[in-house]
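FAQ: What does the model actually see?

It sees only this:
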Amino acid sequence: MTIISITDTATSTKEAAIIHHEPPKLSLTILDELDAEQLSLISTAISEITGEDPTKTHHLKLTIHSPATLDDATSALISRIGLKSLSLSLFPIVFSRQKQSFSSLAKLIETNQFEELDFSDMRMGNGGLANLKEALGKNTNLRRLNLTNNDITDGVAPTLAEILKQNKGLVALNLSLNKVNREGLEILIAATELRELNLRFNEIKEGDILARILEQNPKLEVLNLSNNELNYHELLKIANALHHNTNLKSLSISFQDYTLATDEIDERITAATNFLAAMEVREILKLPLKISLVDLDKEDIIESRKKDFQSSHPVELISVIKDLMRQNISSPQPSSTTSDFAAKRLDPHQLSNPLV
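And it is asked to produce this:
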């Protein structure tokens, strides 16, 4: 591990920038405005670390702590070192009130084709993201966008739709810790290139749109819905949509914040049952699916239902299996061996609960 400190030219004590290298990760943190000498020192140090291997710059992450550093000199440095990842995480909240800062950031985004942008905790609001919409549209290399904790609401829907339309290569979107609900979620139905979607802590109550996202985006691999307000009736809609998406590898539905009514007990059991069925189906088809069910398994319901599965393959599971077998699963296509295995293992004639 190597740490290089770039000090203030005048005082020689105050840190202006820090380079941290722990292979393969390389990070540059800019704490204050940099002069030409400091910029040169940074460029030289990074060049010595990366050598002639351009792929090493893909591991380079820049974190900026002050709006004042969003200048032409910083932009030139970014271009020179081939930076791919920019983080403004924990940027001063005052930034969101300064149009000049947004203009500087927009210029920085337009000038440099970033693959990853981290705007978490900037609290920029819908208007702030709208100010960056055009610049983000021109950054056609963008692959990952983190908008965690930015005071974003459903009012961001038109802006988000435009960003997704212009950035067809975007594969990861983090909207956690915002208040994106029905209108914002409807925009995501058309985002069929996304592989990772994080929607935790958004006060989401409706499962039908989330089910449609799963059904319409067969490429989605990671979906985080934890810490929302989905009751078991809404979770059941999500569970029933899982067989439409054979690429999904991770689903988190933990810690849904709502009061459990007595008449929801049966729905809770059914929801847990269907999520277990989805995991069982994936195991049989050799397409593993990890589901985080923390807080759904109150009173050990999941454990008891799991034992039921292992002993008597319920009708719901057979139905899902047969439904899958009737579909053309294109990505990935299970081999005939896998399908034969599933059919053999779950032959309805050999079960205590045959499918009628």
